[in-house]
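Journal club prep, notes for RB
We'll compare a predicted complex against what the paper describes. Inputs for the adenosine-5'-triphosphate case:
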Amino acid sequence: MTVAQETAPQSPMTQRPGAKGHTDSGAAFVPDQSRAERLTSYDVADFPVPGGREEDWRFTPVDRLGGLFQVEPTDESRLTFEVFAPQGVEIGEAKVGDPVFGSVLRPADRASAAAWAGAEKATLVTIPNEVELSESVRITMTGDRGSGQRPPRVNGHLIVDVGRFAKATVVLTHKGSAECATNVELRVGDGADLTFVTVQEWDDDAIHLAQNDALVGRDAKLKHVTVTLGGEIVRVCTNVRYSGPGGYANAIGVYFADAGQHQEHRLFVDHETPSCVSNVEYKGALQGDSAHTVWIGDVLIRATAEGTSTYELNRNLILTDGARADSVPNLEIETGEIIGAGHASATGRFDDEQLFYLESRGIPQDEARRLVVRGFFADIVNRIGVPEVQEHLMTAIDAELSLSIGPASV
Amino acid sequence: MATLEIRDLHVTVDTENGVKEILRGVDLTVKAGETHAIMGPNGSGKSTLAYSIAGHPKYTVTQGTVTLDGQDVLAMKVDQRARAGIFLAMQYPIEVPGVTVSNFLRTAKTAIDGEAPKLRLWVKQMKAAMAELRMDPDFADRNVNEGFSGGEKKRHEILQMELLHPKMAILDETDSGLDVDALKVVSEGVNRAAAGGDVGVLLITHYTRILRYIKPDFVHVFIEGRIVEEGGSELADRLEDEGYDRFVKVEA
Ligand SMILES: Nc1ncnc2c1ncn2[C@@H]1O[C@H](COP(=O)(O)OP(=O)(O)OP(=O)(O)O)[C@@H](O)[C@H]1O
Ligand SMILES: [Mg+2]
């Protein structure tokens, strides 16, 4: 494997990393079209097949997305769906016509609309009013390539409906191999508290396009956690809206891209309701030839959303040559009556001074690099608040690091 | 008994305007049990000397030698130098986000000793050392140097020195930014470490203040990249009264 080198030149398309990275506290990039005008529809025909020049597809390798722009049924025979349901939660199904079906999510791109059309039923996870779960709900989707030419096609639709003053943690894990498009609807009732974790730990040949929409109720709290480690192409679009004042949304993410992987995370927080808070923080590491990550952080504060407070941050650590991180924060503000709006985006390499400091205490360079990378992720990982996810993630990060740095010695 | 020998050391740094020579032939020998003070004006190259001995990649040695007990220090990587017994307390310690002090210290101790310290004993040792330096136990769980005040960073450097037991400790302006109480606490730490007589101390400083608490055996005046005068602790008193002007003029 390639060994990280901090002095070698960068590909011209890469965000220019400085030792400390670039922190942009000035005006964010504002595209021609307001985020508010972006089309949403349940009808696939409303979205032309993307060619790659569209604003929302310009970073994605659209030519490698297989059949995910077409409606196809799920290959049930090669999909395993496991649910661990602790006491207090209700697991069921929802169909078109049920009030909860589509009450939060409207497809915002063709892949989501195709998945919508391809999944007749949704898995419905209900946490009744005032119920506090003592354990996480765990849902695992595993695609089985088997002897197939291509991985199985999977259309996913999950609805998590958290009742008033209820509290729950739901962990959705994607494994194995699939060409998968998923829609996730998160309904966080008034005063409720939901932690939702989506883990993408696919095999190397998987393709996954996901749309997660959340509706955060009055005085409700949502923690949305994205962990992306595996898969050839993974794109997770997370959209947050509020249905009442006092809502708090914390969207955090950790990703680690290896050679040949494309990992894309698109966030859109739509502040239409007054006095809501959003906090978006994603951190990623990249290593290996043509590892590519994309982070888009759109925040729209509409004229009606007085008293909004928002902050978004994306940091990328490039561990080896040939990797590329795109990071685009985008803040649109239509009212001056806000509490705060900030964003920061930085892409950098190992900080020589940090490494020198650690090495000057006898710590070998590999070990020093490992400490720095673990430290880079630590603050976000520690905030996930789900111990089994945190432990698993740190182990996974160590395993990733052993590819570019060598196995841990201590 | 450890001996650090610096002979005719020339060091350059790459600047935007080309290569700049900073050290111009430094000669110095420090033996275990000795305390040497290096005093000199701003920009004379004191930190450059310290960094060059520790192996900072920014500095290029163009001439001369540095040996520790005859071993070629300049041929060693940064971590090897530390494991050979060289310790640098930095003028401006670096923040390492997400790495806790306790994790950092344990990793460093393990690297220096070649084996992990016995956990219970180690925790006791660490707590005791922190208490002696009047560091709140909470520091163990904080990230390395992150949000530390200037004085807290300096105490943290001395804490590391005490726990890692180097043969040669280079203290780069450890006294700057300390109030009188902190200066005493830090000086006591240095004196504790030096008390056994098996460590050499190279104390880089601007002011004579710290020399009231740490008695140097030798004082070296450092001007424009080299040592221009050497003497005993009385030289420090002269510098206090007269400043560096006399030497700077001689050089110019
Ligand atoms: N990267 C660099 N680029 C340009 N000049 C440098 C660089 N590093 C050091 N220097 C210069 O080398 C000289 C010596 O610096 P050094 O930090 O060693 O001085 P010092 O004696 O420690 O000063 P102080 O008392 O202020 O700590 C200074 O003139 C400094 O500006
Ligand atoms: Mg200095």
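Talking point for the session: The radius of gyration of chain B is 18 Å.
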